[in-house]
Design brief:
The structure is a homodimer of 406-residue chains.
Chain A: E1 2-6, H1 13-22, E2 26-31, H2 34-42, H3 53-64, E3 68-72, H4 79-89, E4 93-96, H5 103-106, H6 110-133, E5 139-145, E6 162-168, E7 174-180, H7 188-207, E8 210-216, E9 218-220, H8 246-255, E10 260-263, E11 269-274, H9 275-286, E12 297-301, E13 304-307, H10 308-319, E14 323-326, H11 343-347, H12 360-369, H13 387-392
Parallel strand pairs in A: 1-2, 1-4, 2-3, 4-5, 5-8, 8-12, 9-11, 10-14
Antiparallel strand pairs in A: 6-7, 11-13
Amino acid sequence: MKIAVLGGDGFVGWPTSLHLSDQGHEVHILDNLSRRWIDTELGVQSLTPMDSIQERSRVWHAETGRRIHFHLIDLAKDYEILKSWLAAERPDAVIHFAEQRAAPYSMKSDRHKNYTVSNNVNATHNVLNALVEIELDAHLIHLGTMGVYGYSTIGAAIPEGYLPVDIETLSGEKKRQEILYPTRPGSIYHMTKSLDQILFQFYAQNDGLRITDLHQGIVWGTHTEQTRRHAQLINRFDYDGDYGTVLNRFLIQAAIDYPLTVHGTGGQTRAFIHIQDSVRCVELALLDAPKRGERVKVFNQMTETHRVRDLAEMVATLTGGRIAWLPNPRKEAAENDLIVENRQFLDLGLQPITLAEGLLSEVVEVAKKFAYRVDRARVPAVSAWTREIGKLVERDPEGRALRSVS
Amino acid sequence: MKIAVLGGDGFVGWPTSLHLSDQGHEVHILDNLSRRWIDTELGVQSLTPMDSIQERSRVWHAETGRRIHFHLIDLAKDYEILKSWLAAERPDAVIHFAEQRAAPYSMKSDRHKNYTVSNNVNATHNVLNALVEIELDAHLIHLGTMGVYGYSTIGAAIPEGYLPVDIETLSGEKKRQEILYPTRPGSIYHMTKSLDQILFQFYAQNDGLRITDLHQGIVWGTHTEQTRRHAQLINRFDYDGDYGTVLNRFLIQAAIDYPLTVHGTGGQTRAFIHIQDSVRCVELALLDAPKRGERVKVFNQMTETHRVRDLAEMVATLTGGRIAWLPNPRKEAAENDLIVENRQFLDLGLQPITLAEGLLSEVVEVAKKFAYRVDRARVPAVSAWTREIGKLVERDPEGRALRSVS
């Protein structure tokens, strides 16, 4: 297959591109390299030294003889360029990772809120619009998030996208319907993925586009089979308070002897998936495209759920680290249960990598290797969901004063 | 109250501004005058000769001694200007009409789809974002559409925004929840109003913004009490295939001896409201603001439902016109029922103006007076929902060849 990977320079995009190239697909990365620009803006960098996309692609070719093509396109702004590219190349599938993906970054300031909404909505809509305009029947796979479901305890299992409900009809009878799960996103970032759902629903219904939406849990780990092959193929690995995600951050914090930062009670239950499973899931979804005219296919791309404080305690035990209990910069339920259905990927043959079998120590090893690159001042999560909450997020666990936006 | 009317130069915005000014409120119109630019783009004009917003405001002042202030701001693009204006003026309420509002225009081409999505989403988000940023607790009233509910027969009444459903819990019991009505918009335009709903839900939940969303039916009529006071205060009145709406179009078509254009079987059932009731409803909503922390208040702003072919037959009987049965350029159910709850406005004292009591002939009179301004070539609806449907929309009822975009 010829596959366009939008946002193929990012944390999941890059290993996905390598994985698909390794499977023999012709891979084209379209990316505006915004993650690298945001690193520059925030004054942070990937814990792992990350080469340019051109250099990474060159190394991949030298190692495997396979080419990964790179095209610098801003999908949110350059609609005509995107359309021309798709019309000329006519890929069989388009995998869409090209959105600003950090909840804390999206809540940093009004500028960051606007950027996230405008970038994510316009990027997604431009892709859909172009596919219709050039009459390209490519399978569109989008990386969504478990966060669109919201994180409040509802006493029911989270289904894969569609919820069966009973509605009272005019005659007083109950009628069963399947509806798109009522969305309750908890940040501007998560909200943009809810907006995406509505865009997908419309384009599947009006234009028969074939769309798969992957509601992914929190990704942990850093290596996949392909990134291990050469030092310069290494994946990016974020430890900062905006882009670092919870389990990976605990492992890095442990590696650099920084307190494990638990926000609030740590009673938040979240869904997780290892990066290796993440790229496998994308491949499984690719091979299981919906038919033209079918509704959007939604997968829950996660393999297990954990409570944040349990993870912190597990990592503390494993590494001898200590936990810092901090005010929660997010506006969210202090405690929630989370039961998630994920039969579809298991039925397609996914064999989950779980925490217990563990690649936890591998992550700690990677973090230790590059610990000299860590700026400890960038570790705390400082982006607050409201101004009132912001007043509570004053000091990092080492006593430094904090500012959300510098 | 000091009230900002965003999009106050438009078809509902202008009479609303007059009505509120007449009630003694301090009215500020913020508008980029995009409707006038779109007229220019499409080569059409309001059937009624419409003066500049500055001239209209001058006439209003001369007639009543009251001022309506005008500020040329592009809400979708000029976030910083909007924010500064709101911070300086700190209005008590913000009424948001500032979106591209024609479904056919939104489906005309990829450019029009992108414009509608980008303009509407960014305008709405900029307003929400600015209110939070400057900590302004103004009541935000947004003009939505009945179209977010979708137009398929579901056998249940359309509630005002929130649908009670039964969900099966883990223990097998049913649990009652009220959810935001599962949206099923039928055009890019309607879709943007569904996106707005998600934005409103988030900002009410995260930031406690006080928001009212008015799901309006199809507006008919042209005059309100205030627009009648002076020839230059007249409202705009659209007859073209993109911006003209169904009942008004029938009345204009009858006035100029053009066949009444019914698309498909005419079995579509739609909700209607007279422009005079529309501005009254906005006022009623204004005085009934939700409290801080409450969920978004949703009203169904409509007073009656009718099947399109019944309206055509009624107008044909009234005026002696004939009906042209044309292919439907929209992708929609050929026939649908529509039962809509609208208790909230009735409870607040709305006394609906219905078709039977009729202001129908007034509309025909206005249309006849300005019939010399009609370009008959602009009457047909030519914007098709898909390329396949577009092939069917070939000729107007008078035999002219049609093109969607010139």
